[in-house]
Amino acid sequence: MALRLGPITLPWPGKPTDDPYWDYFLHTPPHDIQNSAVDLVQRAPEGAVNPAQEEIHSPEINARHIKELATFLGANLVGIAALDPAAPDTPEGYPFAVVSVVRAEHDPCQAPGIGGQVPVQNGLYVTFVLSAYIRELGFRATAKLPADKVRLAAAAGLGTVDAQGRLVTPQHGARVYVADVVFTDLPLAPDR
């Protein structure tokens, strides 16, 4: 069944459709990459760290504030993982990882079209603003480093990893997208 809004028909989420425009919107990558907000945000340079470091609260209060901000920006789930400095894949000087998860009706890996990339855009917005805010507080933060996002999301207590390597959450199941990880030295209380 579809929802009819004047001349526009939208399929209900999760229902199969034979609408060629909807299929094109979800499954056809943009002809020009500059039509993609994902590319634009990924290429945006990060700002500098504020040299005047703010007086901050306890790690528990900092963690609560960061999670509230990420939720306000559009993350459905947010977790904080403490990083092992001895691990080979841990970025030097970043003891914490803030992991944001957004709900995804369609898997962005399977839907490369503009409509299928909406969770990626939402996740990029959250991580870009969150890392900029932490840098404005006078602490280092970056979302540009490579990371095993799904493993870190599970380490932050957001869900478990299934046999296909996808994050499965209690709230949304496998219909989630793990956004880029924000690595930071802001003192935070990890979730696990």
Provide structural commentary.
The chain has a single domain, classed as 3-Layer(aba) Sandwich (NADH Oxidase). Helices cover 29% and strands 18% of the residues. It contains 5 helices and 9 strands. Strands 3, 4, 5, 8 and 9 form a 5-stranded antiparallel sheet that branches. A two-stranded antiparallel sheet has the order 1-2. α2 packs parallel to α4. The mean pLDDT is 90.
Characteristic terms for this protein:
single chain; 192 residues; alpha+beta; NADH Oxidase; 5-stranded antiparallel β-sheet; two-stranded antiparallel sheet; 5 helices; 29% helix; 18% strand; globular
The level of helicity is 25-40%
Mean pLDDT: 90
Low-pLDDT windows of residues: none
Shape: globular
Straight-line distance between termini = 43 Å
Calculate Rg over CA atoms: 18 Å
Number of domains: 1
How many H/I helical runs?
A: 5
Q: Tell me the CATH architecture.
A: 3-Layer(aba) Sandwich
Supply the helix-strand structural class: alpha+beta
CATH class: Alpha Beta
Total beta strand runs: 9
The secondary-structure element order is EEHHHEEHEHEEEE
Question: How can the largest sheet be summarized?
Answer: 5 strands, antiparallel
CATH topology title: NADH Oxidase
Strand content: 15-25%
What does this entry show, briefly?
The chain is an alpha+beta fold. Strand 6 and strand 7 form a beta hairpin.
